[in-house]
Amino acid sequence: MQSVYQDLLGLRWSDTVGDFFVFLRCNSDHHAATSMASTKYQGMHHVANEMRDPNHLIALLDHLAEHGHRLHWGPGRHGPGHNLFTYHRDPDGNVVELFTQIDDVHDEAKGYGEPRPGQEEYPMGPKTREVDLATVNQWGPIDPPSLDH
To answer: What are the VOC domain coordinates in residue numbering (predicted)?
Structure first.
């Protein structure tokens, strides 16, 4: 699947987790598409919506809570992309991610991103990451069913 997105659509590689999860980009954002090899699931896992900044994310979370929509998972910070995230379920049960502060790839030739909180090294370029808890959420709790593939 990765080669289809890269060769046919021109997306560029940002990161890989283990040998089953790949992050691809079409602009300076760390990723616009991800693909996961799974023996259990088919189709889309979630859609993601970017908030302007942490304050915008907080305001939307407060709005959702006021209307009875609770968090499914988060808040947290992912390893790949280093973005702040929350996950919710929409009325049809689909997973929706709200995020902010995703890595910005400012050196396209090398794939380097600007420094972000939680980065393990600088400059941070594309790499294959270990499958571990910090990759999923640098701050702590995980959603175990979300890791099942």
So the answer is: 1-101
Query: Residue ranges per domain, the chain?
Result: 45-147
In angstroms, the CA 84 to CA 55 distance is 12
Q: How far apart are CA 41 and CA 39, in angstroms?
A: 6
Per residue, what are the HEC states of 12-36? EEEEEECCCEEEEECCCECCCEEEE
Q: Give pLDDT tens digits for 102-124.
A: 988 888 777 777 777 666 677 77
Per DSSP bridges, beta strands 95-100 and 46-50 are parallel
Separation of CA 30 from chain center: 9
pTM tops 0.90, yes or no: no
Distance CA 140, CA 149 (A): 20
What is the DSSP-derived secondary structure letter of residue 8?
I
Q: What are the C-alpha distances in Å from 17 to residues 1, 8, 146?
A: 15, 22, 14
What is the CATH number that goes with domain 45-147? 3.30.720.110
- Amino acid 117: pLDDT: 66
